[in-house]
Amino acid sequence: MIEPDGPVPIYLQLADILAERIERGEWQPNRAIPSETQLVQEFGIARNTVRKAISVLRERGLVFTVPQRGTFVSPQANA
């Protein structure tokens, strides 16, 4: 759950929530994660915040983005 007034920036909170879903195996390797639009609707946050969270996941090696296709769970993400 996102805490808008908490000390941790919202994008980092979201990145941690999404990383947890990947690590639990909720999203399988080489499968797309929900779109930015779906995440905006689910969490009620701005698109730029979602983009920053996905960028953090890319830096952590948990996801990769394919232009015009979407963002996918990295093959080694929950190995």
UniProtKB/TrEMBL annotation:
<keyword id="KW-0804">Transcription</keyword>
<dbReference type="Pfam" id="PF00392">
    <property type="entry name" value="GntR"/>
</dbReference>
<dbReference type="InterPro" id="IPR000524">
    <property type="entry name" value="Tscrpt_reg_HTH_GntR"/>
</dbReference>
<protein>
    <submittedName>
        <fullName>DNA-binding GntR family transcriptional regulator</fullName>
    </submittedName>
</protein>
<dbReference type="InterPro" id="IPR050679">
    <property type="entry name" value="Bact_HTH_transcr_reg"/>
</dbReference>
<dbReference type="GO" id="GO:0003677">
    <property type="term" value="F:DNA binding"/>
</dbReference>
<dbReference type="InterPro" id="IPR036390">
    <property type="entry name" value="WH_DNA-bd_sf"/>
</dbReference>
<feature type="domain" description="HTH gntR-type">
    <location>
        <begin position="8"/>
        <end position="76"/>
    </location>
</feature>
<dbReference type="InterPro" id="IPR036388">
    <property type="entry name" value="WH-like_DNA-bd_sf"/>
</dbReference>
<keyword id="KW-0238">DNA-binding</keyword>
<keyword id="KW-0805">Transcription regulation</keyword>
